[in-house]
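Help wanted!
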Amino acid sequence: MTVLEVSAVRRTFGGLVAVQGIDFTIGAGEVVGFIGPNGSGKSTLFNLLTGVLKPDSGNIRLFGEDIVGRPTHLIARAGVARTFQIPMLFWNMTLLENLLAATVEENWSTAQSRAEQVLELLELQHMTHHQARDLSGGQQRLLEMGRILMRDPKVVFLDEVAAGVHPRLREIILTAIRKLRGQGVSICVIEHDMELTQSICDRMIVMDAGKVIAEGPFETVTADPTVMKAYLGDITL
Amino acid sequence: MTLNQSAGWRGLGVVSKVAVIILAVICVSLPFWAGPYWIRIGTGIIMWAGLALSWNVICGYAGYISFGHVAFFGIGAYSTAILMQPEYNWNFFATLPVGAVIAGGLAAIVGWPVLKLRGAYFAIGTWALGEAIREFATVVPFTGGSYGLSLPPNTSSAFFYFTMLAATALAYLICYVLLERSRFGYRVKAVRDSEIAARMQGINADRVKIQAFVLSAIIPAVLGGINAYWITFINPDSVLNTIFTDQMVVMVLLGGLGTLWGPALGAAVLYFLSQQFSALFGSSTWYLVFIGILVMAVVLVLPNGLVSLLPGARKRGVLNQVIGGVVGGIHQTKPSAGAATPKEARHDSP
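Answered by r_m:
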């Protein structure tokens, strides 16, 4: 079953074409990795798919329904959740409040007990009443994962969720991702850590200069000369 | 573990509970043992505690610096004054909801476009609203123009004290329930801290911001109505002067931005000091110098306000967030790849 269908999506910023005519689909329960050099349009694509940005043209269908132009909060309520490249937490709220705020539009009666479970899973229970601004960079990413776990998403977008994170915290994040996967959630991951990407992704989509240049299993795309050229440039060994 | 351990009666220690009870007893009994001067001081403190609370709702909780809040105070004052004129002869208490509805309605209408602005742009927009209402009140005939309006006198200082106390207490109760004990409070604070992230949790940020703005407009409208009856004469200078908004800002910063009780504390300290200043030195511009020094001292030494000195107070960084929003609002004018444009996204930083 196709969960997300993207066709001919394009977005420009002034003269810069950030995403140019991208097509792909995501199936139910699939984990897809998005890789590519910095500035290749991955985060912009995630912003387009989650309604944070509006595409100039193209179609995005979530469970068969066109979501282009739909407000972000309605896309979120349709089952989309995400993390951000630079964590966007509720900085002046405690960890507990951050998690409760994540579920404020759903499951409010069980929010408290759920938040306690999530904090335990993320090993952050000792900081329950600390403000989000007190967290380290890695813990901030954990809390963003926690907000996703508080909800019942159907599609999750993770933007460099393990970047710069200590191996111990990275393991916790991976546990959370596997938990989502076990629940049949479709997951899209932007990640520069190839080892992590290979370990969790069913399929890869490689982007360069706003276009998809390769798509397929990890081993196939990483052996693709176009991908190697995008990463390494025109060098002759 | 409760939803929010830092707020609420159960979160207070024994000493704090005793202090709150003593304060409540003093507030309720003051007119029975204090002289007219102190009843007047008390009435002023209570009114300013309510006004500061209202500004704190839109700035401390929602993250928007409003420089036009006096508009809602003036609307409440004029609503009461006009409806109590001999040709209408409304009951005083019946006029208060009218002012609240007009102010709330105006906040909803103006808020819809203005709350799409951020930081300094929103501040300028609300300042323009305050000035527009002031000019409107000056030129239209039914407000009495610059000559103003007189209201029927009521000589009972206890009446105004208790009316002001009831209105402010009700405002605090409503804000406590809505902002500290309900889902609405989580929505408002989430939007303040990171609008994009809040939207990604399914929160309708546009609606939440307008609701918060309406709430913050209703409170000064009611207090403005009571104030008009209390001072028995109003004109644009007395109820639509920007100094009202300035005082609200200073009181909230002094007491503690984004805290429930900070505005009350700031209002009590500042109003009392200003009255003593006037008694000692008379009306002079030196008072403004004093206010300026006080604001600088608070920002530098006590960025979380006087409320942070109370036992069990929670460390907050709302001031940085709001000031960051002003700076961000100015600088976020050019779209960039990978980031949302100002129209599509708002400032989000710790």
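OP: Thanks! One thing I noticed: Residues 41 and 209 of chain A are 7 Å apart (CA to CA).
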